C-alpha cells in the first residue's frame, strides 16, 4: 500500500534578491567606526593599489535581515530532492542518503575552526581522518596510493590524465602517445577531460550485448595509445565481463588504463580496479560515499593509482611516517597542485564517518542492496507497457539502467522532456540523460541502497500513472508541470547551443567583442 | 483584430492517395495498379486525416493564416472545412489527381516564395516535390505514407502543425537540407529494403519534431559538420586523389576548401582543387588509373546507415577494391550514428568477399581529434 501524496509544491513567484528591499535598508547595523580608526582610514585606503579600487560601489542588495531569511526559506520550499522523496532519477548522480549525523560531525566547531595553514602538530586528528580515509579507499580499489585533492569527479579524471601524461613523458613517449580510447556509454568526462588535455579521442561503440567487442579495441590500439578510460558498468547497468582482457590489450601496446569509478555503488567489496588490471581509478565521494553532491562543488573526486604512478600524484600529499601525519610537498615528479591546500576536508569527515559506520561487511551489503534494488525496480518498471531497456533486455543489471519511453511516445506529440516535466507533478524528477543521445527518449534510474522497496514500488507506480496519461490525457502532460513552482522553460535550445555558452569571463569578453565586430 | 494584419501564407499540398496501400497491407502506394488494388480492397485515403491533425494545430492562429492550396482533395476541402481563409490555385489538368498535380502545385507555390509548403504524403510525394522544386523552397512533410524513409517529414502530423505554428508566430527556424529517399517498393513488397538517396529538400529543423533529428541541438549539429570538414582538410595529402561521396557532411569538405561540390554526386578533389564532378563508375575508374595515391571519403546515407551500396552506387566494388579498404575515410556526426539506434553500419557492394572485409568495426571521424569505432555488418 502506498499513500497518495497529492503533492503540490509551494509557489512564491519569488523575485531575485537584487530586486528586493529598498535604498538604505540594512540587515545588520555595524557599530560606528571609532574615532581613532576614522583618522587612519585614508592610509588604509592608500594601501590598496589604485587599479584594484572600485570606482563605483558594488550594487549589493539593501534589505532587512528577516526579509533575507524569508527569501531563502521560500526558495528552499520550491525545492525537490532526496530530502523529500525517493530521488532515484538522477542516474549515476542519484543522491543516496546523507545521514544528518555526518553533517553534525562536519559542522562541529572543533573541525570548522581549523585552518589549513595551522602547524601540522596541531591538526594531527584531522590529518589522521584524511589519511585513514585514503587507506580505506586504497583497500576498496586495491590501489597503492591516493590523492584527495580533486574537487570533482571530472577534475579527478583530468588529474589522472595528467599523471598518465607525466608517466609517458618520463618514458620519453609523451609526444608519440596522443590518443585516448574510451567507450560511448562511459561518462562524457572520460572523453572530455583527455580532450581538454589535448588528446585525440577514439570512442568505442557497443555491440548488441551493451559493451564493445575485443576486436574493435584491437583495431585502434597502437604505439600512439596513451590510455583507455572507461566506466564499468556504465549507464546501461551492464558490466563488461571482458574488462581484464581489454586492459591487457591496452597494456600490451604500452598504454595505461583508468577506471572511472565515480559511481561504485554496485561494486564495493565485490570487484576492485586492481584485479581488473587498472593503473588508475577515481571515486566521487558524493556518488558512492554519501557526501552531499553540492551541485557542482565543493565535492571530492579521489584519484587512486598503482605504485608505478604514485610519484606523479598531486602535491601536497597527506602522508604518515609511522608516528606522525605530515604534509609532503617535496614531490619533484608530481603533476603539482590542482586545488588549494589538501581538498574539501568536510567531505573527508562525512565519508570517513559513513565508511566507519558500515565497516567492510556493511560496504559489501550496500552494494548488494543497491543491485537488488535496481533489479527490483527494473521488474516493476518493465511491467509498464511501452517502457523498454536497450541492450539485452532480459539480463540482470548492476546499480543503474537507462530505460527508453520511446515505444510509448513515438506515435504521440510528446517526448521525454514532457515526461520529465510531468514527473515534477508527482514530486519526483528524473534526468533524461546526458550525452550520448543513443537511446531514444531515455530516462536513467539508479535506486542505490538508500531506498526501500516501498519507495521503489511507489516510484514505478507513479511512472505507470504517467504512462497511462500518455494514452488517455496527453494534453495534461504537454502542459505540465502543474504542481511545481515554475511552469516550464519555453526554449531549451540555448542550453545546447555552444555559441550561447559563457563558461568564463574570458569567453564572455571574446564573444562580446565578436558580436560588436559583426 | 483589424483587417490590416498581414496574413502568413502557408502552402498546402495533399497527396490524396498517400498511404493508401499500407492500410490494406500492400507496403506502399506507388503505381496505378497498387492504388486501384488498394481502393478495391476497401482502403480509405487517410492523408486527409493526417492533414487535419496538422492543420488543427494552426486553429488558434486562424485569423493570421491564409492557406494557399490546390483544389478539392489536394487541400482545398480540408482547409475550408476547418474554417481557414483559403486561396485555391487553378488546376489546368482534368481527371484524377496524379503526381503531376503535386509537381505543378509545388512549382507555383515555390514561385510565390511562401515561408513554408506543407505536403502530406510519403517518400513518393517527397520525390515529386524534389523533382519539381529541388532544394529551392522551404517545405515540410506531414507524414501520411506507409513507411517513410525520407528525413523531410515531421515525426507526426501534430509536430508538422507545431512547426507551422512557429512560422506563423515568426519564430526563427533553422533550415537544413534533408534527405529524400527512393525506396524500390517493388523490392520492398518482396521483403527487401532497397533505398537510394534521391535528393535534398530544405526543411525547417526543430529538435525532436522532425524525423531523424533527435539531436541535442541543430545548431550544434551544423558546427560539428564544419568541425569534421576542418579535420579532413587539415590532413589532406598532396598528390592524392580524393573521391568524395554524396551528402551534406561530405559537401562541407569542399565548401571549406572554397569548392563547389555536387550534393548527390561523387566528386574528385586533388591538391585542394576540384578535378571533376558527378563522376560515374567509369569516370571514377579512369581517374583511378591516373593517380596512384587515392582515398575515398564517404558518409553513411539515409537513416539506415549504408556506407556503400545505397546512394553512392557509382563507388562500385571495383572502385573500392582499387582504392583499398585502408584508404576509405568514413565521416559522420555523432548524431547521425546515434540516430541508427545501435544498428550497425551496412556495406552492400554486390561483392560478398569485399563486403566481408568491412565486417567488424570501422573508425568514423566525428570531429576534431574525435573518432568513433562503430560496428559494421
What does the model show?
The complex is a heterodimer of chains A (518) and B (377). Chain A has 518 residues and is α/β, with parallel strands linked by helices. Among the domains of chain A are: 17-77, no CATH class; 109-353, Type I PLP-dependent aspartate aminotransferase-like (Major domain) (Aspartate Aminotransferase, domain 2, 3-Layer(aba) Sandwich). In chain A, 36% of the residues lie in helices and 10% in strands. Chain A has helices at 35-47, 65-77, 100-106, 109-112, 124-141, 153-170, 189-196, 214-218, 243-252, 285-288, 345-382, 406-409, 416-424, 453-472, 474-478, 505-517, and strands at 145-147, 179-183, 200-204, 225-231, 256-260, 280-284, 301-305, 317-320, 325-328, 401-404, 442-445. In chain A, helix 7 (189-196) links the parallel strand 2 (179-183) and strand 3 (200-204). Chain A starts with 34 loop residues before the first helix and ends with a helix. Chain B has 377 residues and is an alpha/beta fold. Chain B has two domains: 8-205, Rossmann fold, CATH 3.40.50; 218-376, Rossmann fold. Chain B contains 13 helices and 16 strands. In chain B, the strands form four sheets. Chain B has a seven-stranded mixed sheet with strand order 10-9-8-11-13-15-16, sandwiched between helices. A five-stranded parallel sheet of chain B has the order 3-2-1-4-5, with helices on both faces. The N and C termini of chain B lie far apart (61 Å). The chains are: A alpha/beta (518), B alpha/beta (377). The interface between A and B is medium-sized, with 38 and 31 residues. Strand 3 (200-204) of chain A pairs parallel with strand 16 of chain B.
Q: Any chance you could write out the topology, listing elements then pairs?
A:
The complex is a heterodimer of chains A (518) and B (377).
Chain A: H1 35-47, H2 65-77, H3 100-106, H4 109-112, H5 124-141, E1 145-147, H6 153-170, E2 179-183, H7 189-196, E3 200-204, H8 214-218, E4 225-231, H9 243-252, E5 256-260, E6 280-284, H10 285-288, E7 301-305, E8 317-320, E9 325-328, H11 345-382, E10 401-404, H12 406-409, H13 416-424, E11 442-445, H14 453-472, H15 474-478, H16 505-517
Parallel strand pairs in A: 2-3, 2-4, 4-5, 5-6
Antiparallel strand pairs in A: 1-7, 6-7, 8-9, 10-11
Helix pairs in contact in A: 3-11, 5-11, 6-7, 11-14
Chain B: E1 8-14, H1 32-40, H2 47-56, E2 65-69, H3 76-81, E3 85-88, H4 99-111, E4 116-121, H5 123-133, E5 139-143, H6 157-168, E6 174-183, H7 185-189, E7 195-205, H8 218-234, E8 241-244, H9 248-256, E9 267-270, E10 273-276, H10 281-290, E11 294-298, E12 306-308, H11 317-323, E13 328-331, H12 334-338, E14 346-347, H13 352-358, E15 360-367, E16 370-376
Helix pairs in contact in B: 2-6, 4-5, 8-9, 10-11
Amino acid at each position: 500500500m502506498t499513500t497518495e501524496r497529492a503533492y503540490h509544491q509551494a509557489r512564491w513567484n519569488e523575485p531575485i534578491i537584487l530586486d528586493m528591499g529598498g535604498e538604505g535598508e540594512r540587515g545588520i547595523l555595524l557599530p560606528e567606526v571609532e574615532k581613532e580608526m576614522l583618522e587612519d582610514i585614508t592610509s588604509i585606503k592608500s594601501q590598496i593599489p589604485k587599479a584594484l579600487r572600485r570606482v563605483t560601489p558594488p550594487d549589493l542588495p539593501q534589505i532587512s535581515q528577516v526579509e533575507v531569511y524569508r527569501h531563502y526559506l521560500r526558495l528552499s520550499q520550491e525545492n525537490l530532492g532526496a530530502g523529500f522523496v525517493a530521488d532515484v532519477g538522477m542516474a549515476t548522480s542519484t543522491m543516496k542518503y546523507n545521514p544528518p549525523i555526518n553533517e553534525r560531525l562536519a559542522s562541529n566547531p572543533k573541525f570548522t575552526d581549523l585552518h589549513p595553514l595551522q602547524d601540522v602538530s596541531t591538526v594531527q586528528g584531522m590529518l589522521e581522518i584524511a589519511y585513514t580515509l585514503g587507506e580505506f579507499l586504497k583497500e576498496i580499489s586495491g590501489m597503492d596510493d591516493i590523492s584527495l585533492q580533486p574537487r570533482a569527479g571530472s577534475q579527478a579524471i583530468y588529474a589522472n590524465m595528467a599523471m598518465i601524461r607525466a608517466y609517458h613523458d618520463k618514458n620519453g613517449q609523451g609526444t608519440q602517445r596522443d590518443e585516448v580510447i574510451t567507450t560511448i556509454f562511459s561518462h562524457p568526462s572520460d572523453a572530455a577531460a583527455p580532450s581538454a588535455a589535448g588528446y585525440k579521442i577514439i570512442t568505442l561503440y557497443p555491440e548488441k550485448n551493451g559493451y564493445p567487442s575485443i576486436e574493435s579495441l584491437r583495431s585502434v590500439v597502437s604505439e600512439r595509445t596513451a590510455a583507455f578510460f572507461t566506466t564499468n558498468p556504465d549507464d546501461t547497468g551492464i558490466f563488461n565481463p571482458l574488462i581484464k582482457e581489454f586492459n591487457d590489450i591496452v597494456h600490451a601496446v604500452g598504454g595505461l588504463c583508468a577506471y572511472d569509478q565515480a559511481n561504485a555503488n554496485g561494486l564495493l567489496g565485490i570487484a576492485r580496479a586492481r584485479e581488473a588490471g587498472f593503473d588508475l581509478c577515481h571515486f566521487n565521494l558524493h556518488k558512492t560515499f554519501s557526501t552531499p553532491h553540492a551541485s557542482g562543488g565543493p565535492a571530492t573526486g579521489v584519484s587512486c593509482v598503482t605504485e608505478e604512478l604514485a610519484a606523479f600524484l598531486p602535491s601536497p600529499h597527506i602522508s604518515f611516517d609511522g608516528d606522525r601525519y605530515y604534509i609532503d610537498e617535496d614531490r619533484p615528479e608530481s603533476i603539482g597542485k590542482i586545488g588549494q591546500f589538501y581538498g574539501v576536508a568536510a567531505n573527508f569527515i562525512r565519508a570517513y564517518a559513513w565508511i566507519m559506520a558500515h565497516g567492510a561487511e556493511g560496504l559489501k551489503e550496500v552494494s548488494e542492496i543497491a543491485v537488488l534494488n535496481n533489479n527490483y525496480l527494473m521488474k516493476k518498471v518493465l511491467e509498464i507497457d511501452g517502457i523498454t531497456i536497450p541492450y539485452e533486455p532480459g539480463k540482470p543489471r548492476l546499480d543503474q539502467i537507462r530505460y527508453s519511453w520511446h515505444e510509448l511516445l513515438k506515435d504521440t506529440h510528446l517526448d521525454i522532456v514532457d515526461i520529465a516535466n510531468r514527473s515534477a507533478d508527482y514530486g519526483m524528477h528524473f534526468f533524461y540523460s546526458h550525452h550520448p543521445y543513443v537511446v531514444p527518449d531515455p530516462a536513467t534510474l539508479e535506486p542505490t541502497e538508500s531506498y526501500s522497496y516501498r519507495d521503489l514500488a511507489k516510484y514505478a507506480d507513479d511512472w505507470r500513472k504517467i504512462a497511462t496519461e500518455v494514452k488517455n490525457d496527453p494534453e495534461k502532460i504537454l502542459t505540465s508541470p502543474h504542481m511545481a513552482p515554475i511552469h516550464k522553460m519555453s526554449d531549451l535550445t540555448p542550453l545546447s547551443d555552444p555559441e550561447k555558452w559563457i563558461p568564463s569571463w574570458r569567453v564572455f569578453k571574446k564573444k562580446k567583442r565578436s558580436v560588436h565586430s559583426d | 483584430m483589424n483587417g490590416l494584419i498581414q496574413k502568413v501564407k502557408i502552402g498546402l499540398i495533399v497527396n490524396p492517395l498517400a498511404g493508401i496501400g499500407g492500410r490494406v497491407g500492400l507496403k506502399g502506394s506507388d503505381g496505378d495498379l497498387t492504388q486501384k488494388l488498394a481502393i478495391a480492397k476497401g482502403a480509405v485515403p487517410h492523408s486527409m486525416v493526417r492533414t487535419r491533425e496538422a492543420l488543427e494545430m494552426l486553429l488558434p492562429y486562424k485569423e493570421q493564416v491564409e492557406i494557399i492550396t490546390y483544389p478539392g482533395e489536394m487541400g482545398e476541402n480540408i482547409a475550408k472545412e476547418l474554417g481557414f481563409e483559403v486561396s485555391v490555385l487553378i488546376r489546368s489538368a482534368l481527371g484524377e489527381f496524379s503526381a503531376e498535380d503535386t509537381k505543378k502545385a509545388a512549382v507555383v507555390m515555390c514561385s510565390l516564395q511562401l515561408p513554408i509548403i506543407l505536403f502530406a504524403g510519403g517518400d513518393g510525394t517527397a520525390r515529386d516535390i524534389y523533382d519539381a522544386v529541388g532544394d529551392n523552397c522551404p517545405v515540410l512533410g506531414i507524414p501520411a505514407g506507409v513507411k517513410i524513409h525520407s528525413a523531410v517529414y515531421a515525426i507526426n502530423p501534430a509536430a508538422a502543425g507545431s512547426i507551422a505554428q512557429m512560422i506563423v508566430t515568426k519564430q526563427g527556424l533553422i533550415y537544413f537540407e534533408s534527405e529524400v529517399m527512393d525506396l524500390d517498393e517493388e523490392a520492398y513488397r518482396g521483403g527487401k529494403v532497397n533505398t537510394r538517396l534521391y535528393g535534398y529538400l530544405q526543411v525547417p529543423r526543430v529538435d525532436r519534431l522532425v524525423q531523424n533529428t533527435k539531436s541535442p541541438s541543430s545548431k550544434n549539429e551544423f558546427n560539428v559538420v564544419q568541425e569534421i570538414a576542418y579535420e579532413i582538410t587539415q590532413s589532406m595529402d598532396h598528390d592524392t586523389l580524393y573521391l568524395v561521396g554524396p551528402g551534406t557532411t561530405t559537401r562541407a569538405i569542399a565548401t571549406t576548401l572554397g569548392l563547389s561540390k555536387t550534393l548527390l554526386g561523387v566528386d574528385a578533389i586533388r591538391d585542394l582543387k576540384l578535378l571533376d564532378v558527378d563522376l560515374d563508375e567509369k569516370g571514377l575508374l579512369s581517374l583511378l588509373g591516373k593517380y596512384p595515391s587515392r582515398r575515398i571519403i564517404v558518409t553513411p546515407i539515409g537513416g539506415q546507415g549504408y556506407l556503400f551500396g545505397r546512394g553512392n552506387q557509382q563507388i562500385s566494388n571495383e572502385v573500392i577494391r582499387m582504392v583499398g579498404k585502408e584508404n576509405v575515410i568514413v565521416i559522420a556526426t555523432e548524431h547521425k550514428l546515434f540516430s541508427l539506434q545501435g544498428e550497425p553500419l551496412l556495406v552492400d557492394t554486390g561483392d560478398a568477399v569485399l563486403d566481408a572485409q568491412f565486417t567488424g568495426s570501422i573508425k568514423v571521424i566525428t570531429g576534431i581529434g574525435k573518432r568513433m569505432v562503430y560496428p559494421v555488418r
